[in-house]
Structures are given as structure tokens and as C-alpha cells.
Amino acid sequence: MGSSEDTLRDHLRQHTQCLFGKSAALYCCPPITEQEGLEVGLPRVAAEFQQFLRNGGDLEFDAFIVEFTDGGAGRSLDALCSTVRSLFEFLSDHDPAGGACMRAKVDSPDWLFSFGDCKFYPIALAPCYAAESSRFNYGHTSTVILFQPVAAFERRHEPGGESIPSRLREQIRRAFHCKGQEYNLNITLGPCECFRVIKPLRNNDALVRWWEAPLYTDSHNLALDDKG
After folding, report:
1. For 3, what's the count of Cα atoms within 13 Å in the CB-facing half-sphere?
2. Residue-level pLDDT at 20
């Protein structure tokens, strides 16, 4: 029987509508479980992320993936925001390069998540999203954060920039459109990467300011959200 990381990797490749996702090289960090909790899980993820970069993972893989198996982590949009902020704040505070990207103005057009001198396009998939959302995770009960290295887009498409080419974004939007998962163009074509990390539940909802959400301190808080 394959590991949980193999199962998640196969699930993402099977269901993605992204043109390049089915052949993507995905590095899945061992999941953060409810039993382990954030106090143990977040330091382990940070150490794994550092090792990933030391081994040149940003040049070899298309995404570094963090999975939360606790059902409360992404059961609601509020819970997802707190989960993502807690993860990002911890990584920012323990960035080996000292970049501390979460101390910067997150809703600035020039903000990108960074860790270890590498920049990423992170996105969140979670159970709170319905089938009509591009962030729907097709029945998987985990909450999944994909850190997509900017370098992965550069080597596949147009080297030298920190923006995903508009041509590529349009191709991806069309693929999701064919599956009934419309993109919100205010987010997709907007100047700020931060609003693409967590999307609203519905396209006409307000932009999600996830970096202002309450921080989680331990797995107990996640379990409370699962019951509420």
C-alpha cells in the first residue's frame, strides 16, 4: 500500500484541471495530523522545507505541498484562513534567509511568499469549496497548501520574470471553464498575488484577507472548528 503522500499526489494529478498539473513533479511533505498538532507539525514542515531547498527542490519540483489531515483545518473559509496564516507566519518567522515575508505589506502588488531565498506562488485547496470552485479538492478531506516555485514557471514558460504570463493564465482559465469552474477575473487579473492564495467561496464574494485571520496555536483550535 502506498504512503499518504503518494495517495495525495495521485489525487491531485487525477483531478487537476491545470494544463500542466497531470505531469507535475510534486513534493509532498508528510502531513500534519490532528494527533501531532501544530506545535509539532509546523517545526517539522519548516525543517522539511529547508531540506527541500538545500537539495535544489525548487529547481526539480513544481510544488512543495503541505497537507493538514485534521478535518477542521479547511472545513470553513474562516478556518482555512487561520490555518494558512498560522503556517505562513511560522515559516516566515523561521525563514533561514531571514526574509520574514509576512512582516511586509502582504496586500502590496510586489509581495510574494518567500522562504530560503526562493519565491513561491502558494494556493490553498480545501473541503470548504464546492464543486463549482477552482479550489475544489474533489472529495479529499484534507486541506492542502501548494507552494509553487516561481522558478518552476520560469523554466517551463518564460524565464526572467516573476509574473505568470497572461497567455498561460488564459489557457488555465479556459481549462477550468470547461469543467464549470469559472475564475474570478478581478482576482486573476488583479495586481496582488495575496488574493490568489485563498479564493472566496463564490466568485461574487469579497476578496479574502487571510493574513488578518486569527492565528491558531495548537490542534485543539482546529478540532473546535471541525465541530462548529
Report:
1. 8
2. 55
Residues 6+ apart with CB under 8 A from 55: none
State the DSSP H helix or E strand holding residue 68, giving kind and residue range, or none if neither: strand 63-68
Map residue 122 onto helix, strand or coil.
strand
Backbone angles phi, psi at 206, to 5 degrees: -65, 155
In the block, residue with C-alpha cell 507535475: 24
**In contact, 65 and 147? CB cutoff 8 Å:** yes
Domain extents for the chain? 4-206
pTM for this model (two decimals): 0.84
Using 50 as the pLDDT threshold, list the residues of the chain that sit under it: 1-2, 161-162, 219-220, 223-224, 226-228
Grid cell digits, residue 94: 523561521
The half-sphere exposure of 220 on its side-chain side, counting CA atoms within 13 A, is: 2
Backbone angles phi, psi at 93, to 5 degrees: -70, -20
Contact assessment for residue 94 and residue 100, using Cβ atoms and an 8 Å cutoff: no
What is residue 18's predicted lDDT score, i.e. its pLDDT? Answer: 53
